Amino acid sequence: MGTFDDTYRRSIDDPIGFWGDAARLIDWTRPPNQVLDTSELPFVHWFPDGELNTCYNALDRHVESGRGGVAALIYDSPLTQTVRRYTYAEFRDQTAQVAGALRALGVNKGDSVIIYMPMVPETVMAMLACARIGAVHSVVFGGFAAPELAARIDDAKPKVVLSASCGIEPTRVIPYKPILDEAVRLAVHKPECSVILQRPQDRAVLQGTDLDWEATVSAASGVDCVSVKATDPLYILYTSGTTAGPKGVVRDNGGHAVALAWSMANVYDVHPGDVYWAASDVGWVVGHSYIVYAPLLAGVTTVLYEGKPVGTPDAGAFWRVIEEHQVNTLFCAPTAFRAIKKEDPEGKYKRLRDTSCLRALFLAGERLDSPTYEWARDLLSVPVIDHWWQTETGWPIVANCLGIEPKPVKPGSPTQPVPGFEVLVVDGSGNSVTPGIEGEIVVRHPLPPGTLTTLHNAGERFVEEYFARHPGFYLTGDGGHFDEDGYLWVMGRIDDVINVAGHRLSTGAIEEVVARHPAVAECAVIGIVDSLKGQVPIGLVVLKAGVEIDPEVLRSDLTQAVRESIGAVASFRNVQVVPRLPKTRSGKILRATMRAIADGRDYTVPSTIEDPTALDDITRIISPEALNTVV
Ligand code: COA
Ligand code: AMP
Q1: Is residue 622 within 8 Å of residue 528, measured between CB atoms?
Q2: How many other CB atoms are there within 10 angstroms of residue 172's CB atom?
Q3: Which of 137, 214, 479, 588 is deepest in the core (most CB within 10 A)?
Q4: Contact by Cβ (8 Å): 203, 172
Q5: Within 13 Å and on the Cβ side, how many CA atoms surround 304?
Q6: pLDDT at 1 over 60
Q7: Which of 367, 393, 397, 489 is the best mutation target for the ligand 2 pocket, counting ligand atoms within 8 Å of the beta carbon and taking the most?
Q8: Ligand 2 atom 11, closest CA
């Protein structure tokens, strides 16, 4: 591999040669003759005539090449005081048995399976077991409430649901079974059965079509990998868009395996024998790509951590895991480091541990603020790499590619576009803007392999949301600018998506819940700056004429409603009653202007505004100065 610039240039000028070479990182049952099919743009098909099995590439091939005794996964759960190691051979055998159980339940190639499970090894086995038999998994994050789970059941139409009796948070055990039961009751589609992993912290009562995980899996025989088309779906992962309904990002098998294997070596500089820890949750894209698939495809040891950065038991949790498991590369969200810094600003817990095994820290999921960057860099004395990506892309769009050629770090910028992604900043008419000028960040289509192929059951929405605004380009939904050195500066979303502690949420979905309250005439939900979580939602509420309600009662009602409809992860606690919302003369709420105020960005008052003083009221509530928060 040449220098970064050479590698990048080749990926853009000759994507077929570039990704055709990268395809050699994967074992194919039928090697592809064709690298890219663009005959149905904006739908693209990578390696259209190739066949493979993703689970085989993640597990079996490492065993067959003599690395069966190497650790595949280390499960570390301070919440249950458990540490368990699985070799590649053990993990393959247990996964094959889960796959056998699914097959015995009638799950076949192309069927979908919902996985609503906590951070336990069985969740990873469940994902890979689906891949093994060509079934399509859809993992739902455990922090979502029943209506969100029901919406995903109705869209994915799973034959079977795999779940557990409970999840564990530092302060409480969360029974999953009542949430699952309620979701199945709410859903129109009824799965044939649910297989429940009983955890001793809270055993579930099984009834009707429920099956016990242990009994079901132990009665099954292991099954082999089936060959699937490179273009067959591997999984659906739902993410928040600007409108209320979640959108199901569809990932294929072939392009995904090639891109993730390539990224492990070239972006992260991680290789077989290394220990890699993505401190995320398998319910998010970071968990899919960098807890499960990429490290295992690359034959690396992955750490599955069930706990928080602080309070499990203290602010030294991360340093213990790094020392005990000899972690070489850590990946987490900046919010995790803000949480540690808040509890242990001097880094005294860090000094109790030998973390010299650590080579790099990668951060993503939200904007990396300079104070957090500097604190992490000084504490760890290793490269701290901000990188930018999305559920849709599945792997980094912009990063400092340590495996090719490290670039100087500019705090606040995730560095330069990764090979495969031709990133541009454009104005509202789609014209490229000059360095230093803010605009909409887009990526020239076709996107590289590993990125979304469509939205499940929503091909039109896929075209409309990502390709209609600037034909020929993928709209990322983020705004920012390039500098003179070609570094990208990502400034924030240009739509109604917010990032709360690295969790992506739709303000539109929260608004729908708030608007249902009988006292509410209209509302807007905006993300405001939060010193720990980056952003948290605030509900700006206009009451119905003549309605009187104690603001504390309203706040408590709305908080509870959002917890029950969306989930605790929304961290929705802040409600402000306002006399009116800023609007245009035609009655459109000025959300973009409010977002700019909340982010502390410059903005021009739209000439169509109905009453400019409405903005003053809002600024007094949501601006960073008003909140007195420094980011
Ligand atoms: N199941 C059920 N509930 C969950 C949950 C899960 N899997 N995950 C979170 N929740 C609940 C929490 O218990 C909390 O409930 P509460 O309001 O009753 O206290 C709420 O959802 C918010 O959780 P969280 O956002 O995790 O906030 P926190 O205050 O508990 O912890 C951080 C704050 C910063 C430590 C934590 O958010 C963190 O580690 N974030 C990193 C996120 C991440 O990895 N993102 C992926 C991108 S890399
Ligand atoms: P998700 O799909 O949950 O991964 O969220 C993707 C969104 O998170 C992006 O569109 C950005 O708004 C934000 N994001 C992720 N990584 C970064 C980063 N390094 N810098 C700024 N924003 C980021």
Answers
A1: yes
A2: 9
A3: 137
A4: no
A5: 26
A6: no
A7: 367
A8: 366
